[in-house]
Design goal:
The chain is an alpha/beta fold. The protein is 52% helix and 9% strand. It has a 5-stranded parallel beta sheet, with helices on both faces. α10 links the parallel β4 and β5 (213-217). The protein is globular and about 70 Å long.
Length: 261
């Protein structure tokens, strides 16, 4: 089921889906096929690719996901943190992926999402001197787990190894929710993940009977105070934003159909 989900999700993502439309359209334009249908498919693939690569469109798609929970603000030195946050005994950072490049430092092996999640987790950890840092994520067969790479990065940034708890087996968010319940069912904790992923992660945690304190990180949509012409153009980052927005909505719909969201 895990790999079936991954395969289906892959082909529903913008770039593979648009390329499939283009390939199918070109095949139909061959002599003896259906050239009119082929031209329509090619036009649809190109139009969709252009649309989803636009900065305005991609930000519009992902912004509602990122507004599901408010960000945790900065706190001045000596300023008390909110009681629900102060009561947390663990800061759980969900996995975001890494490369297998031994020559790189652990911080540089992390994906952009994983690095942003870890940085936010460390910021919150400084507010909670008695809390543990819980790092999650399995790894490919024969390679270090993602949790171990996160732990190595955290230690290199000054975290006491005694404060780190690794969850080395979860492969996805559903696994992470089950493992967190097994380890910390009766303890309040902070949940750190990408802002666009937090709604689904919170739903899966709540399905396990948990009520974490949500802490969004890795924002992809940042409204500008003074818009410029470049804010309305196209780039690959926008295609990435659209991809995450579609991926999360598909994931949430799947969990909803299974009664987990």
């Amino acid at each position: 089921m895990f790999w079936l989900k991954k395969v289906i999700a892959f082909w529903l993502m913008p770039l593979p889906f648009c390329l499939a439309l283009l390939a199918l359209g070109l095949w139909f334009t061959r002599p003896g096929r259906r050239p009119r249908a082929g031209r329509l498919l090619v036009a649809a693939g190109l139009a969709l690719l252009v649309l989803l690569s636009n900065k305005v469109v991609s930000s519009w798609m992902i912004a509602p996901l990122e507004r599901a929970f408010p960000p945790v603000p900065e706190f001045a030195a000596g300023e008390p943190v909110p009681p629900p946050l102060a009561a947390c005994r663990a800061v759980v950072v969900l996995g975001g992926g890494n490369s297998d490049t031994p020559a790189f430092s652990a911080v540089n092996r992390l994906s952009n999402s994983a690095r942003a999640r870890l940085m936010e987790g460390l910021r919150i950890l400084r507010l909670l001197p008695g809390a543990k840092l819980v790092l999650s994520g399995a790894g490919p067969t024969g390679q270090p787990s993602h949790a171990s790479v996160l732990a190595e990065a955290a230690i290199s940034l000054g975290v006491d190894p005694a404060r780190i708890v690794r969850l080395d087996t979860p492969r996805d968010t559903e696994d992470e929710a089950a493992e967190v319940k097994r380890r910390f069912a009766r303890e309040p904790f902070v949940l750190v993940t990408s802002a666009w992923h937090l709604r689904r992660a919170m739903a899966l945690m709540r399905h396990q009977g948990l009520e974490p304190f949500p802490c969004p990180a890795d924002y992809q949509s940042r409204p500008a105070d003074h818009p410029q012409f470049s804010d309305y153009t196209w780039d690959t980052d926008s295609l990435s934003r659209s991809t995450w927005a579609i991926y999360e909505r598909i994931g949430y719909a799947w969990e909803w159909l299974r009664g987990k969201a």
